[in-house]
Amino acid sequence: MNLKTCTKCGVTKAFDHFHAHNRSKDGKRSTCKTCRQSEDPGAAARARRYYANNREKVLAYQKAYSKDHPEVAARSQKVWLGKNGFLYQVQWKRNNPGRVNALTAKRRECVRRATPTWANLVEIEKFYIEARALTESTGVPHHVDHVVPMTSKLVCGLHCQFNLQVLPGKENLQKHNRHWPDMP
């Protein structure tokens, strides 16, 4: 558990007692929520009013700040994607059904071409059953991963029982098609 000392009251509290602040080193404000509320209870309402009256000015400032401080922008974008990334994907898929169909067809064709005639389809199916069972039992999404990627600039693996493994979804998505055994 991360702890922080409030600069106003001097009490050491858990991180969840401090508001987020992406400009600080640890990502939290220096005063706790209680002290912040007691010192200015109407600050949030004033900030909303200011933003409503000066929207273009605020957005221009934010854009300039993001350009001058790319590390801060990247960190806040990562936080936003962590909270909203899935919803963004769902919305994108809903707004682009033709593109989704094209990408799905391309993936299906890639798998079809990478499946050799000697591949044991029953063994392949067991990997998908195992991934679903692990997802349901642990609550963590699991994917069937190709150890050697099917599409890459350097190597192309097969869709067969010897090239498959079950991985947690997060680990598989981080791997992309850039990592495989005996990689040059």
Outline, from the CA principal axes? elongated
Going by helix content, strand content and strand pairing, the class is alpha+beta
Strand order of the largest sheet: 1-2
Biggest β-sheet description: 2 strands, antiparallel
Low-confidence stretches: none
Residue share in β-strands: 5-15%
> What is the N-to-C order of secondary-structure elements (H for helix, E for strand)?
EEEEHHHHHHEEH
Q: Figure out the total of helices.
A: 7
Helix content: 40-55%
Number of strands: 6
Q: Average the pLDDT over all residues and give the rounded result.
A: 88
Span of the ends, CA to CA: 40 Å
Description:
This protein is of the alpha+beta class and 184 residues long. Among the domains are: 1-41, Wheat Germ Agglutinin (Isolectin 2), domain 1 (2-Layer Sandwich), CATH 3.30.60; 117-175, no CATH class. Helices cover 55% and strands 13% of the residues. The protein has seven helices and six strands, in the order ββββααααααββα. A hairpin with a 7-residue loop joins strand 3 and strand 4. Helix 3 packs across helix 4. The protein starts with a strand and ends in a 9-residue tail after the last helix. 3% of the residues are buried.
Outline:
The protein contains seven helices and six strands. It has 184 residues and is an alpha+beta fold. Among the domains are: 1-41, 2-Layer Sandwich (Wheat Germ Agglutinin (Isolectin 2), domain 1); 117-175, no CATH class.
Topology:
Layout: E1 3-5, E2 12-14, E3 18-20, E4 28-32, H1 33-39, H2 43-53, H3 55-68, H4 70-95, H5 97-114, H6 121-138, E5 142-146, E6 164-168, H7 169-175
Helix pairs in contact: 3-4
